[in-house]
């Protein structure tokens, strides 16, 4: 893919203090990929996103032309394919480094590190006291968490984060390397590993100083600071070009709908077990949703792509919604809940 074919407009829908959004922002800055941002409220509703025919409620989402991508893992994979003249951040396929990168991704997200990090948010944060925010997150997680339950979870969360930092301190960072894969600059492996710890280190009161600090984990904390310095330096080097323009929901909608698709219609692999089970074929009406959080917000549309790693659904608004197979569920729109 040439840089010319990569230059479809990129729109990032996010809010600035989302730790998941930071993953994508860091990636874009470190690679120098231009984009615009459409800032969103931290709670529902998000009419800017709904106008795209998208009900998915997690942040961030990213569009490349008329293709809209869900889940930061898939978003970063797609960005790796753009701008071939710019050095990629990911390790080469088929290498030990790629295995480390993917394992760190799974460790932070599926391994529970982020969930434990979220349990360490200081309860006196103003946003956490807002009844609207509390109601929104109850919908997001599928149930209200009381202060008593949060307090009981905190010691477990501290222990898990402490153990995770100890793993990095005594293995991948033990030899004093600057970056996880011994690269000259931060790589995707660093993004995959650093983000929950970077988030917590920047939240006063999140981590008990007598349990988790730079004194106990000097290599980890130095790595976090080094990573932030590298991102800041990359942004400074690019100057104004690194600062994304903020656009309104109307502008973002117009930009996306007037663009070409980023990807050709890949079609539906009839051999896929999920296609066989539900009798799915290209053009069928389907329902799609994440299985871990935000699962009450389900997208429907026309199935236009299905493989072992990705599903593509075209919404009524005319955009193609891409989701990873991992962590998402797909079924025919008319299927009853008993056929899950």
Write up what this structure looks like:
The longest helix is centred in the middle third of the chain and has 24 residues, at 147-170. The protein is built from 13 helices and 11 strands. It is globular. It has helices at residues 3-6, 19-31, 47-50, 72-80, 96-109, 113-118, 126-129, 131-141, 147-170, 188-201, 218-238, 249-257, 273-278; strands at 10-14, 36-39, 61-64, 67-70, 245-246, 267-268, 285-290, 299-306, 310-314, 320-324, 328-332. Residues 336-340 have low confidence and may be disordered. Strand 7 and strand 8 (299-306) form a beta hairpin. Strands 1, 2, 3, 4, 5, 6, 7, 8, 9, 10 and 11 form an 11-stranded mixed β-sheet that branches. With 340 residues, the chain is of the alpha/beta class.
Which helices and strands, and how do they pair?
Elements lengths: L2 H4 L3 E5 L4 H13 L4 E4 L7 H4 L10 E4 L2 E4 L1 H9 L15 H14 L3 H6 L7 H4 L1 H11 L5 H24 L17 H14 L16 H21 L6 E2 L2 H9 L9 E2 L4 H6 L6 E6 L8 E8 L3 E5 L5 E5 L3 E5 L8
Parallel strand pairs: 1-2, 2-5, 4-10, 6-8
Antiparallel strand pairs: 1-3, 3-4, 7-8, 7-11, 8-9, 9-10
Helix pairs in contact: 2-4, 2-10, 5-10, 10-11
> Please, how many helices?
13
How much of the sequence is in beta strands?
5-15%
Q: Estimate the helix proportion, in percent.
A: 40-55%
Chain-averaged pLDDT: 93
Low-confidence stretches: 336-340
Radius of gyration: 20 Å
Q: State the separation between the terminal residues, measured CA to CA.
A: 39 Å
- Helix-strand pattern, N to C? HEHEHEEHHHHHHHHEHEHEEEEE
Coarse shape: globular
CATH fold description of the domain at 96-228:
Glutathione S-transferase Yfyf (Class Pi), Chain A, domain 2
